[in-house]
Structures are given as structure tokens and as C-alpha cells.
Amino acid sequence: MALTIDGFAGSGTFAHGVHPPGNKMFSTEMAIEVIPSPSKVLLPLSQHVGAPCQSIVKPKQSVAFGEMVAKGGGFVSAALHAPITGTIQKNVVTTLPQGRRVEAIVIKADGEQLDGDALYEEILGGEWSARGLEKFDAQQISNAIHEAGIVGLGGAAFPTHVKLMSNDKMNIDTMLINGCECEPFLTCDYRMMIEAAGPIITGALLAARAVGAKNIAICIEDNKPRAIDVLQKAAVGTGIKIVVLKTKYPQGSEKQLIMAVTKRAVPLGGLPMNVGVAVSNVGTIAAVARSVQKGKPLTHRVVSITGGGIVNPKNLLVPIGTPIRELFDYCGGFKKNAARVISGGPMMGFAFTNFDAPVTKGTSGITVLTAEDVAKSKETACVRCGRCVDACPMNLVPTRIALASRNKDIDLAEQYNIMACFECGACAYTCPANIPLVQLIRTGKGLIMASKKK
Q: What is the per-residue burial (b if ≥16 Cβ within 10 Å, else e) of 273-296?
């Protein structure tokens, strides 16, 4: 008889994967702090999956906190809203941590700003009702999310209104709220689950109404007992189940999460909706609650500044568009042994050096690694050990994909299903030859995308 978890068919885990050190201790007990309001923000017009948004403001125009400054450039796009009160400056081009150069709206702070405890209360506090939500129909919920410019805050930055909308052709029966946060070092979702259980519960109920799901589960790995306890108490009487999963990387990936909970396999190239499931991150769901119940847009997010190379690791409530340099300054700067700065965590993040880059909707954390963390032996030849194959949660052969990419053989790379790789880094973590598998696969994907534009 198959194992089940809390009424779902899954066993609480998935095939393959790895167990890297969590390294959550730097910031896990650091309550969310509000960073002082910046003197200016840079709002990239492309900080989400899909079409860039389109500016609807002009230089010298005054904008209020929460006012829309750019509208979505298509169905798969997301609006932008002012996270501060200020004056629009001339647009600039900024470089994001992953290397993309994009146009950005600049707002210079002007006048009194909502700050400190008042801002915390505005974004995360207040009353959050789990009752009477039947007054919101599916279309109202989706429209509110769209208007608020919400995207996936777990890092993917996919426009949420596209995910959370009714679909006559797809019967979605299960809504999964992703609280796994399996990426090492990062703790922003953990702190949200502890400090903002109210909007997470309300948002989960609203999301389920939007897609028509009858089953709702908040999914948390078993290494987060405090978050489990807080949400179990908050969910009493709502019908929401708190599903406890085994700690393994990448448990928080959509396809692996769906398998662990429901035992449903999303087909290659398919989407969660193909197996009757919708998935959304806990931070995203809290933003959904705020947009629907209070009519407020996405202007701020929680960011973990963590790692052994930062003086005072913290979890910060940050205006989107704040220069990353200001986050480091607020955390006391770098230690002498700081050696590498990563946007995100060490498994899926990007190393970068442009600290003037702004926080975007997809910035879940910044990890500062020490020289000891990054020390590794020189790359050697593949020894055909098969560890990368054993680790790959997508059942791919990473070394062959990487070799094809290195040789610029995009046809062969596509035969090995390179586009199915979501770059979790499990293969590189296990490779004894220190081959940069993920970087090579990213390069191969870039070659394929470039070839399709010709």
C-alpha cells in the first residue's frame, strides 16, 4: 500500500534530488525589519516573465505611494506601482544581477514617506478575514491580482493572474501553497509563514476560489517545525491542510512538489494545470490577499540578506526598486572574508558585482559567501560516475546536455531535452569533477533561443 500524506496520494517526497547543507542559521531567527525608505528607486520595466510593461508616467510627474506607473504590455505581463511617494525622473538603463540590461523608471523620493512600523502594518499587518470570501468571484480575484501587478515572489516572477484564473478546459481540483523554501541560506518565506500567517491563509482561500480548487494544502518541509505549528493553528476551521514534506532539494520546484503531495506527474513540457493542480508561493499568496481584500498593489517584498560574508544577516521588508547596495549598508556591510555575492541562493542564484542593481519582484534574497565557501578544486574531466543522473529530479543526463552545449550542438542538446532542465543545480552539486554543468546548460539554452530569433 502506497504511503499517503494528510489525505493526499503522495508520499511526501520525490525521486532523486540532493541534500545540501541548509545554512539557514544566519537569518532564520531574524524577524522581518523595515529598511529605511530609499532616496530613489529604479523600477525595471522587465522584471517578470513575459512582455515588458509600458510606462504611463512622464519625467517631473508626481506620483503617490501605490500609484500605477506602468501597465502590463500583454496578457503575460505585470503592472508596476510606485513603492514611494516622489517625482518621476528620466528613464535609465540598468543591469540586473543576471546580466540583463533593461529600461527602468526612476522615482526620486519627495515628501513624507510611509516607513517603520506603519509600513510593516500596511503591508503585512491588520485584519485578515477567512470568512465571507464568497463575495469575490473568480474573475474579480483574477482582475485584482492583475491590477496589483503580482508575480511569483519565489523567484520565477511569472505573472500570477495567468496562473490563478478559471479555465473551462482544465479542471483544477488542488491548490498547493509552496512554503518549502528548499534553497540553502534563504529564509524570507520562513519569516513570512511565522509573521504573516493571516494573509497567507486568506490568500490561499482566495486563490482556490480563483481556480475552482476544492483541495487546499500549504506545503512545508519538516525542517521548519515552527512555521508548521503557526500555520496549523491559523488554518483551524478553514479546510486548509498543512502538509509536511521530507526535507530534500529541490522540494520547492513545482513538478517535484506536485509529485510529493499528489503523486501526479506533470508531463514533459506540461504545466501543473495539466494534472489538475495550481501552485503558488507563500509570499505571492500573501500579496494576493492584500490585493483582493484591501485593494492594494505589490510595492514591497521581503528579502533575505544572508551568508557568512555579511556582518548582520537580516530579513528585510524592502521597496521594490531599492538599490541592493543600500541593503548591504543597512546590514553592516561585508566581512573581510566575503568573496562572492549571489542574487538568490547558491544552488540557483547568479553571482554578480553590480550592487547598484535594484531589488526586483523576483529578488528573494542575496547571499554573501566567504572565501572558504567558494573554495573548490579545479575542473577535471568527467569520470562517467553517473552522480548527476542520480541527482537530477527531471531524469535528464546533465553531462551529455552540458557537453552538447559546450560544443554548440543545439540539435543534440534538444534531443537530450535541455529545455526541460530548470537549472536547480543538483547535478553540479554532486559532480566530483567540478564541471560547471548549470552554466553550460544555461549557455546552451541561450544558443537555442538565439537560433529561434533568426
A: bebbbbbbbbbbbbbbbbbbbeeb
Whether the predicted pLDDT of 454 surpasses 80 = no
CA-CA distance, 12 to 5, in Å (whole number)? 6
**CATH number of the domain within which 190 lies:** 3.40.50.11540
pTM for the model stands at: 0.94
C-alpha cell at 251: 522540494
User: Which residues partner with 86 through β-bridges?
Assistant: 63, 109
Cβ-based neighbour number of residue 415 at 10 Å: 12
Residues 183-233 have pLDDT tens digits of 999 999 999 999 999 999 999 999 999 999 999 999 999 999 999 999 999
Give the bridge partners for 176, in sequence order: 217, 279
Last residue of a domain, one of 97, 114, 131: 114
Nearest to 324 by CA among 367, 289, 382: 367
- Cβ–Cβ under 8 Å, residues 373 and 308: yes
Task: Find, among 352, 375, 376, the residue nearest to 435 by Cα.
Answer: 376
Distance CA 51, CA 54 (A): 9
Residues 246, 322 within the same domain: no
CB 320 within 8 A of CB 359: yes
- pLDDT tier, 3 (very low <50, low <70, confident <90, very high otherwise): very low
| φ, ψ (nearest 5 deg) of residue 265 | -100, 115
